[in-house]
């Protein structure tokens, strides 16, 4: 992609919010995704396989757990972290999700809820991608109701805990090294977090088949059958679902950035198509209705970018709250869904072919729209902040 196309995509020059050094890191990620991921992503998406060969390159980029300070992590800004999440999703939302689960949810759980000893023990290896993490909250029958209805149990037995239950839609779990398992303590009925080695006896992870979205992400159905976990591996700062929610508040902002990246990737491919595809003897980009679609897409992208950029600034200032992340996640995923649909519409029938690099974004958008809090659940969080009235059931 030419520099002119990149500037057209960043219509209000949001990259200028970054320092020179941060922009260099962002562009290094862009170059890596363009050179190493873009050429292979369609074949892996179609086969529903993960490109393990790209992990060494991601290790060199050092982008896992980027905003966390110390313990081998980057200690940079949430703004840079968000733009990198967008950059990953701009080429492929599955790769952005892989990194978001590993560096955001798994590492974030340890960083925010673990002791210093646990941070030192786990985070440096995870920051190097030497240990890959997963995040086990959702269950087969429990999604939006996780705050009250977890059925996975944890029972204290001396210096160990015994975990039983199932987790569903757990990205990275089929090949990862450790999974953060959230379970309800049978003694006090409170949710607690545990760092569970995937090699533990009684821990099984079965790949979920026949997905139509994020096919590169290796989601698993996890079964925990009397899995024993040392007290030393219980997250010492995770003593209720409120602590789990703190992790989700931070990572939900990252999902909003991914939604922007998904929309931007579809738009850029549609724009390239519009200026090269000819009908009636001229590029279709010269037709008024096509330009209208492009402007609608650009408006969605620019509005979403403004929202998430300000959200990341609030995070960097320590001012971000649940309502801020929830509004961004709800708004940006709706705008993403519109944008990828318009990109597909612009391409006509060619939009459903993988080779034109829009159909994959259309499908992947459906998963981003739902995970880490549906639009409806995030709307209720924002609505509560506006009215002071809790409308949750």
From TrEMBL:
<dbReference type="GO" id="GO:0003995">
    <property type="term" value="F:acyl-CoA dehydrogenase activity"/>
</dbReference>
<keyword id="KW-0274">FAD</keyword>
<dbReference type="InterPro" id="IPR036250">
    <property type="entry name" value="AcylCo_DH-like_C"/>
</dbReference>
<feature type="domain" description="Acyl-CoA dehydrogenase/oxidase N-terminal">
    <location>
        <begin position="22"/>
        <end position="128"/>
    </location>
</feature>
<feature type="domain" description="Acyl-CoA oxidase/dehydrogenase middle">
    <location>
        <begin position="134"/>
        <end position="227"/>
    </location>
</feature>
<dbReference type="InterPro" id="IPR046373">
    <property type="entry name" value="Acyl-CoA_Oxase/DH_mid-dom_sf"/>
</dbReference>
<comment type="similarity">
    <text>Belongs to the acyl-CoA dehydrogenase family.</text>
</comment>
<dbReference type="InterPro" id="IPR006089">
    <property type="entry name" value="Acyl-CoA_DH_CS"/>
</dbReference>
<dbReference type="GO" id="GO:0050660">
    <property type="term" value="F:flavin adenine dinucleotide binding"/>
</dbReference>
<dbReference type="GO" id="GO:0006635">
    <property type="term" value="P:fatty acid beta-oxidation"/>
</dbReference>
<dbReference type="InterPro" id="IPR009100">
    <property type="entry name" value="AcylCoA_DH/oxidase_NM_dom_sf"/>
</dbReference>
<dbReference type="Pfam" id="PF02771">
    <property type="entry name" value="Acyl-CoA_dh_N"/>
</dbReference>
<keyword id="KW-0285">Flavoprotein</keyword>
<keyword id="KW-0560">Oxidoreductase</keyword>
<dbReference type="Pfam" id="PF00441">
    <property type="entry name" value="Acyl-CoA_dh_1"/>
</dbReference>
<protein>
    <submittedName>
        <fullName>Acyl-CoA dehydrogenase family protein</fullName>
    </submittedName>
</protein>
<dbReference type="InterPro" id="IPR006091">
    <property type="entry name" value="Acyl-CoA_Oxase/DH_mid-dom"/>
</dbReference>
<dbReference type="InterPro" id="IPR045008">
    <property type="entry name" value="ACX4-like"/>
</dbReference>
<dbReference type="InterPro" id="IPR037069">
    <property type="entry name" value="AcylCoA_DH/ox_N_sf"/>
</dbReference>
<dbReference type="Pfam" id="PF02770">
    <property type="entry name" value="Acyl-CoA_dh_M"/>
</dbReference>
<feature type="domain" description="Acyl-CoA dehydrogenase/oxidase C-terminal">
    <location>
        <begin position="245"/>
        <end position="386"/>
    </location>
</feature>
<dbReference type="InterPro" id="IPR013786">
    <property type="entry name" value="AcylCoA_DH/ox_N"/>
</dbReference>
<dbReference type="InterPro" id="IPR009075">
    <property type="entry name" value="AcylCo_DH/oxidase_C"/>
</dbReference>
């Amino acid at each position: 992609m030419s520099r002119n196309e990149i500037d057209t995509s960043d219509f209000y020059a949001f990259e200028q919010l970054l320092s020179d050094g941060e922009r260099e890191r962002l562009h290094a990620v862009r170059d890596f995704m363009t050179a190493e991921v873009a050429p292979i992503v369609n074949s892996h998406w179609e086969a529903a396989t993960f490109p393990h060969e790209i992990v060494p390159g991601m290790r060199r980029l050092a982008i896992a757990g980027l905003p966390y300070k110390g313990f081998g992590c980057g200690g940079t800004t949430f703004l840079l972290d968000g733009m990198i999440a967008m950059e990953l999703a701009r080429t492929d939302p599955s790769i952005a999700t892989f990194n978001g689960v590993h560096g955001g949810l798994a590492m974030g759980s340890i960083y925010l809820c673990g002791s210093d000893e646990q941070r030192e023990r786990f985070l440096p290896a995870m920051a190097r991608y030497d240990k890959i993490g997963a995040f086990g909250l959702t269950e087969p029958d429990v999604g939006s109701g996780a705050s009250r209805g977890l059925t996975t149990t944890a029972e204290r037995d001396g210096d160990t805990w015994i975990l039983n239950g199932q987790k569903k839609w757990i990205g990275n779990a089929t090949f990862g090294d450790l999974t953060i398992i959230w379970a309800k303590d049978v003694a006090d009925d409170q949710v607690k977090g545990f760092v569970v080695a995937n090699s533990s006896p009684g821990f099984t992870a079965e790949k979920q088949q026949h997905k139509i979205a994020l096919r590169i992400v290796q989601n698993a159905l996890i079964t925990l059958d009397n899995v024993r976990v040392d007290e030393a591996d219980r997250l010492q700062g995770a003593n209720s679902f409120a602590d789990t929610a703190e992790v989700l508040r931070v990572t939900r902002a990252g999902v909003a950035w991914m939604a922007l990246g998904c929309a931007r990737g579809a738009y850029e491919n549609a724009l390239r198509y519009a200026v090269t595809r000819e009908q009636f003897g001229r590029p279709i980009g010269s037709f008024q209705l096509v330009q209208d679609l492009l402007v609608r897409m650009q408006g969605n992208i620019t509005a979403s970018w403004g929202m998430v950029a300000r959200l990341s600034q609030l995070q960097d200032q320590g001012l971000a709250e649940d309502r801020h992340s929830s509004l961004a996640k709800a708004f940006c995923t709706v705008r993403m869904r519109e944008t990828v649909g318009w990109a597909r519409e612009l391409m006509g029938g060619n939009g459903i072919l993988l080779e034109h690099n829009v159909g994959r974004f259309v499908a992947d958008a459906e998963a981003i729209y739902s995970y880490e809090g549906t639009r409806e659940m995030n709307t209720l969080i924002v609505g509560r902040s506006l009215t002071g009235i809790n409308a949750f059931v």
